[in-house]
Amino acid sequence: MNPGRIDPQNPIFDDTRKPLAAEFVFKGHEVIVIANHFNSKGGDDPLFGVTQPPVLDSEVQRIEIARLLNDFVAGIHEEDPKANVVVLGDLNDFEFSKSIEVLENGQLTNMVETLPEGERFTYNYQGNSQVLDHILVSNHLADQTEADIININSLYMEEHGRASDHDPVMVQIHLNNGQRQCPDFSGNGPEKQNEDNGKHLGHDKKGKACGYDKAS
Q1: Mean pLDDT score of the chain
Q2: Backbone angles phi, psi at 113, to 5 degrees
Q3: Residues spanned by CATH 3.60.10.10 within the chain?
Q4: Partner of 121 for a Cys bridge, out of 60, 129, 209, 215, CB 3.0 to 4.6 A?
């Protein structure tokens, strides 16, 4: 089934959203995307409240969900070690939290952690800027992925016209094994030319139809 829920009858998803997995084909490359919205931090002690260290009762459920997702991704990588997997969403926890650590666990890299610490925030709670939204990719994609957080919401109020209380996280993934220049260059030989402005077979007028960023 594509798309499909992951283990939707599992009781760990009681009172929270179930992950949705879908497989896409982008320029000939298969990509599996798993969208999530983990249970909220409602009921937890505030980070800088009277109780220290704070009691984080809601974390228990997020850790169990993260463990299930990590097992699911591990199963995909066992079948195909080069499978392109992206896990994303409002995970309602920080990049250094136990739930994110369990979610990564040898399978995934959290691209938020590649950003400077001062840029790692997607939400503001009681004056504390923090990351709750994440994009993780298969480890073999990490060096081919660039991340950014667009702070268009968390710094503002509803009166300012913000669209959400969370900021979007974006990634750009190069799916050609890190190779951004097409290896099959145009040339004088008929085997490398077609009728389209001399571009090699498979290219359109913009030079991008082969799936690479650019070609000569």
Answers
A1: 86
A2: -75, -5
A3: 4-173
A4: 129
Provide the 10 A C-beta neighbour count for residue 121.
20
Complete edge-to-edge strand list for the sheet that includes strand 133-138: 4-5, 20-26, 29-37, 84-90, 133-138, 108-110
The mean per-residue pLDDT over the stretch 152-174 comes to 94
Q: Which backbone phi and psi does 26 adopt, to 5 degrees?
A: -120, 115
Cβ neighbors of 196 (< 8 A, separation 6 or more) are: 203, 204, 205
- Tell me which DSSP letter residue 77 carries: H
* Whole-prediction pTM: 0.81
Q: How far apart are CA 82 and CA 104, in angstroms?
A: 16
Are 110 and 162 in contact by the 8 Å Cβ rule? The answer is no
- Cβ neighbourhood burial of 150 (10 Å; 0-12, 13-18, 19+): exposed
Token digits for 122?
A: 């997607």
